[in-house]
Amino acid sequence: MITNIRLVLAAAKELDLDFEILHPNQNLVKVVVNEKPYYFTNYSTPFLSQSISKIFKDKDYTYHLLKDTVNLPKTKAFLSPYCKEIYKEYLLYLDIDSMIGEIKATFNLPLIIKKNAGSAGNNVFLCQDINEVKLSLEQIFNVNSKEYDYVALAQEYIDIAREYRTIIFNNELLLLYEKSKFEAKFIGNLSPLHWEGAKAIHITDKKIIASIENFVRPIFQEFSVDYGGFDIAVDKNGKYWLIEINSHPNFDIFIRDNNETIIVEMFKKMLISFS
To answer: Cα 13–19–21 angle (5° rounding)?
Structure first.
């Protein structure tokens, strides 16, 4: 049983809700609230609609939806030149060299190259020169790789001082923690919590929470956020940036460094909302 499912069931038990484990691997469960069943599968939850989940998983869609609403790094998507024939009508750049030409005309170095639908820092590259850009695109578009994606993103580099993950539910901030890499060692993955010795630090400081809430509030005027894990960075000049949104946040690292009752209490609030 994965951590998220275990903590959801712990919340259901404390609320005295009926639940049922529906699969031998224990990662498909049903929780009943007011006689209505709600299904949790692996990291997916019933809190988020399919269409919004798709937007969050697709970083290019997220960028185009929110770029005029909140501060995001400048981003441009590139469809793989090796894509299936049915997608050829969307192919604006016929080879990697033409993509590099557009990237050179649009971005300054260094810059980030990353897969569009990735998570956990996989296939995310900090490129210092054009040769690294080319190698990164080739790796993302490698159809024989398990990390293959048919869309790659070029993204403005942000000199990040601090990075946070905030859990938003029904337009409300339920959890905030810092992805701290203070005294941590880089071991090949740019995602802060994948550095050796990195910590997830639970943030309860009201001033920091208020700053994050003020930053994300304009998003709620664009659309209501039912559920999501927002990665928010503060750069060296104190400017806030939305890096991406996770449709199914994973709490393994958080409970490694913090008391898991924090997440159980959060899930209790979310389940109660179904009442």
So the answer is: 115
Distance (Å, rounded) from C-alpha 4 to C-alpha 267? 10
**In sequence order, which residues have a C-beta less than 8 Å from that of residue 82 and are 6 or more positions away?**
141, 143, 150
φ, ψ of residue 66 to 5 degrees: the values are -115, 0
Quote the CA–CA distance of 193 and 186 in Å, as a whole number. 10
pLDDT at 100 over 90: yes
Confidence of residue 23 (pLDDT cuts 50, 70, 90): very high
For the chain, how many residues are written?
Answer: 275
pTM (two decimals)? 0.92
C-alpha–C-alpha distance, residues 49 and 87, integer Å: 26
Residue 196, class by beta-carbon neighbours within 10 Å (0-12 exposed, 13-18 middle, 19+ buried)? exposed
C-alpha span between 52 and 55 (Å, rounded)? 5
Phi/psi at 69 (5° precision): -110, -40
pLDDT, tens digit, 9 for 90 and up, residues 128-157: 999 999 999 999 999 888 888 999 999 999
For residue 44, give the DSSP letter: B
pLDDT tens sequence across 149-187: 999 999 999 999 999 999 999 999 999 999 998 888 888
Distance CA 201, CA 258 (A): 8
Distance CA 133, CA 176 (A): 33
C-alpha distances out from residue 227 to 15, 57, 86, 153, Å:
20, 13, 33, 24
Which tokens go with 189?
A: 């993955």
